[in-house]
Amino acid sequence: MAIHIGLTGWGDHPSLYENQSISSGKLFAYASHFPVVEVDTAFYAIQPQKNYKKWVEETPDHFSFVIKAFHTLTRHDREQLTLKDLKELMDAYIRSIEPVLKANKLNAILFQFPPWFDVRKENIRYLRVIRDYLKDYPLAIEFRNRSWFEPQFKQQTIDFMKKEKWIHTICDEPQAGEGSVPVILEPTNETTLIRFHGRNVHGWNKNGRDNWRAVRFLYRYSETELKEWVERIKELKKQSKDITILFNNNSGGDAADNAKQFINLLNIQYEGLNPRQMDLFDGGL
Predict the structure, then answer these.
(1) How crowded is residue 159: how many other Cβ atoms within 10 Å of its Cβ?
(2) How many DSSP H helices and E strands does the chain contain?
(3) CA neighbor of 2 nearest in space, from 62, 58, 75
(4) d(Cα 261, Cα 56) in Å, to the nearest integer?
(5) Would you state the pLDDT for residue 182?
(6) CA 155 vs CA 150, 158, 162: distances in Å
(7) Cα–Cα distance between 249 and 71 in angstroms, integer?
(8) How far is residue 120 from each of residues 132, 147, 157, 220, measured CA to CA in Å?
């Protein structure tokens, strides 16, 4: 049983690099704190292999990556692809992450679907196509439309994920209408992914605000809120072989501190991380 705790990205967490030389790069420094990270840039563009090769080389042997699926694969751009085009795109995506696969550092490929991806036959068929074509890879699914977990569909959704071998991404997020999902503590695979988005109800939906993306994840979890999850993790451990937890509440720079706080609450000590770079004034003669 392993619990891996990290953040969504490594470039925007200044508290991790304070008083440190980052001449080796931020990812190297990040990997001295956490054993896993989410590659968010893969959502916006299929990354060149050289990027993944560099990231693999900068991280220790037992480090792992949760890599987000390219946005066209998750239909964020609403583009209707032919089956041929879809398979070619998936081929290109898998080729891009090949260095991570060869290094045995792939934690999961995260398919985070948009708020308008609701429960309907067309979308269920699409999920089957992806899962069938990428049958050899660990795929995690994150819904952002509440319809999948409405009472009349909840159990069918869970059963579908189990049958199709999708890793259930459990979310802690604001309960702000149709475009948010409740906490569903039901693993569907040997592994479970948990993403902490914060609980900023008023910032979750766009509602015409220009600064929406800047405040969406503006939230700092209290110790009481994290302790709720300590108890939940105890229950999930009974059903999951591995649990990966990613903190995404970083609009105000809170993710790293909350992740470290949660590691302490779970009494976890990670070994085999990158060596911590010394501050200029640390240490003795």
Answers:
(1) 11
(2) 11, 8
(3) 62
(4) 27
(5) 96
(6) 9, 5, 11
(7) 21
(8) 19, 9, 11, 35
pLDDT band at 56 (very low <50, low <70, confident <90, very high): very high
- What pTM was computed for the model? 0.92
- Residue 121, classed as helix, strand or coil, is helix
CA separation for the pair 110, 73 (Å, rounded): 11
Taking each helix axis as running N to C, give the angle between helix 121-133 and helix 83-96, from 0 to 180 degrees, rounded to the nearest 10: 50
Say what the pLDDT of residue 284 is.
Answer: 42
Please give the average per-residue pLDDT across 58-74, as a whole number. 97
CA dihedral 107, 113, 115, 120 (to 10 degrees): -130
Distances (CA, A) of 163 to 117, 126, 151, 183, 230: 20, 15, 19, 21, 28
Q: From residue 236, how far is each of 75, 211, 265 by CA, in Å?
A: 30, 36, 16
The runs of H, that is alpha helices, within the chain are: 26-30, 41-44, 49-57, 83-96, 98-102, 121-133, 154-163, 201-204, 212-215, 223-236, 255-265
Q: What's 137's DSSP letter?
A: S
Q: Whole-angstrom Cα distance, residue 121 to residue 37? A: 33
In the chain, what's the furthest Cα-to-Cα distance? 68
**Residue 73 CB: number of other CB atoms within 10 A?**
21
3-class SS of residue 124: helix
pLDDT greater than 70 at residue 241: yes
